[in-house]
Amino acid sequence: xxxxxxxxxxxxxxxxxxxxxxxxxxxxxxxxxxxxxxxxxxxxxxxxxxxxxxxxxxxxxxxxxxxxxxxxxxxxxxxxxxxxxxxxxxxxxxxxxxxxxxxxxxxxxxxxxxxxxxxxxxxxxxxxxxxxxxxxxxxxxxxxxxxxxxxxxxxxxxxxxxxxxxxxxxxxxxxxxxxxxxxxxxxxxxxxxxxxxxxxxxxxxxxxxxxxxxxxxxx
Amino acid sequence: xxxxxxxxxxxxxxxxxxxxxxxxxxxxxxxxxxxxxxxxxxxxxxxxxxxxxxxxxxxxxxxxxxxxxxxxxxxxxxxxxxxxxxxxxxxxxxxxxxxxxxxxxxxxxxxxxxxxxxxxxxxxxxxxxxxxxxxxxxxxxxxxxxxxxxxxxxxxxxxxxxxxxxxxxxxxxxxxxxxxxxxxxxxxxxxxxxxxxxxxxxxxxxxxxxxxxxxxxxxxxxxxxxxxxxxxxxxxxxxxxxxxxxxxxxxxxxxxxxxxxxxxxxxxxxxxxxxxxxxxxxxxxxxxxxxxxxxxxxxxxxxxxxxxxxxxxxxxxxxxxxxxxxxxxxxxxxxxxxxxxxxxxxxxxxxxxxxxxxxxxxxxxxxxxxxxxxxxxxxxxxxxxxxxxxxxxxxxxxxxxxxxxxxxxxxxxxxxxxxxxxxxxxxxxxxxxxxxxxxxxxxxxxxxxxxxxxxxxxxxxxxxxxxxxx
Lengths: 219, 470
Known about the structure:
The complex is a heterodimer of chains A (219) and B (470).
Chain A: H1 2-11, H2 16-24, H3 31-45, H4 54-67, H5 76-81, H6 86-107, H7 118-141, H8 147-171, H9 183-213
Helix pairs in contact in A: 1-3, 2-3, 6-7, 6-8, 8-9
Chain B: H1 2-27, E1 35-37, E2 58-59, E3 62-69, E4 74-82, E5 87-88, H2 96-122, H3 128-152, H4 159-175, E6 182-185, E7 190-193, E8 199-204, E9 210-218, E10 221-229, H5 239-246, E11 252-262, E12 265-274, E13 279-287, E14 291-300, H6 307-318, E15 320-322, H7 326-336, E16 340-345, E17 359-364, E18 368-375, E19 381-387, E20 395-402, E21 405-410, E22 416-420, E23 429-438, E24 447-457, E25 463-464, H8 465-468
Parallel strand pairs in B: 17-24
Antiparallel strand pairs in B: 1-4, 2-5, 3-4, 6-7, 7-15, 8-9, 9-10, 10-14, 11-12, 12-13, 13-14, 16-21, 18-19, 19-22, 20-21, 20-23, 23-24, 24-25
């Protein structure tokens, strides 16, 4: 209901006519937005318009699933429409966290307790950072990001990580310049990471799809 | 929302603190680092702080660097250690073993610096960019080798593999230094690679066999090549005779006995464990018509637990080869020129007008290690000779009696060559008695002549007199 409250505060400035139009075109809007419009209108005119039922929510999910059987939703609008400054801050926080973890692993790479697992550990930390970023998104928005949104989010994380790593190298005197290997190399790395994110999220979608067929629901 | 902001701020604070702490700890609050170029390091070069929670006793940070020498107008690579990033725990400051382990990390960097210098020497016209690319590649190779060194040597805890790596790194240092590391014995015609300079000694053993030995005691092992003047008349070399003659003891257990090949000669490899001394002996035997060769690697402990030493022995044995050293002596003789100070017919008992050259045949036994006889293109006779039984400084004169002619030579430091001109050697088969007189006996009348005899033939190799006359 938190998202619905947010929509109520956003839509209460709209005219009744605009809200009725939103309700008529309910398929184009989120369930929470439509219910928020209904609640505002009911408060204004004392009407008893029914809220969208849980069945409607399920119907919509199934409809999406018909076209999005791998959870590969390319509807960027869903991502951009709810875009907030936190969607930049979250990947930045995740990237910084990832950098510190990888540097710790690097620092202790030769220790016996690492026993040649530093590479694996760093890979795991990348996954942790990505999941952490998605979790923050969900907590901030009240719903999970869609496929293309996750790819964007991962790419932003990669961008921040790469730039933070270069900055770290610069500040510690290990490298010189913000782009020690050149700007082209920097953006090449980011581009490659974007593709990697795309591939990774596709794999996640596939896993989700398979798990759903076994009635296991993953966030 | 508020709790999420706190979580994010907490993560940001943790991350920044961690990154800043690691940097300040390593750089000791941005102290300017000092660099020591490759040398024998001591703990006084380790200025860094130990990492928190580290399990190791010390660490060294060494790298390859490239510099331009404007005077020589050429690029030059060198290895240097960062003293600030190199550290030792207080409890280990008396550990020489650990210091040696760290030294070899530094040596690995030096090996790769030499590789880069080798590349620069072979490609002097390349650009700076090219050298930097090569530097980058060699740094990666170096880092991989540093990891392998620590992994296989168990960070200095697996002694045999630690020793094996020290042997390997020293070998690589030699390979890229001016000195090839190859020890050559021109008497026996043998070459062998030692990663460090061996010491030499020779003598006559209890079986009256002359030997020359090059030995290196390092890496917790004893590496040696023993060269024997072929004791004629003994059984030919094979696994059974070697077992019978050298490995027939209650406490000896033969772990390995295999047949290999060195320059076409059969070579026999033995690994034997002596339970009484708890030592393992790795031997490689081979021989030709004139010499027997024995390569040795001895170490403490049983073979089963010391695979690193077996590997080291294999590497050491692979560095061995045989060659024909006759051209070396012929060339040396031509450069030295004629050294005969006196010669005359055998009927003359010797230059009695010079009391110091009066001699009597007294001691016919093994006194030397020699190579020959060899015949030059003009038919002249030469024989390389190394006095083993007495110090060179005591030798007053060298004497040879060949084809009933007496030759006297002044003995000088270094290699000595008996020589006789072709015109005095009328027959193709003749007796040769050769040896020396000593300084210390000069007051006792005629000097005893320390000599041995062979029959020389222009067509075949030499044989001792007793065998040749049978």
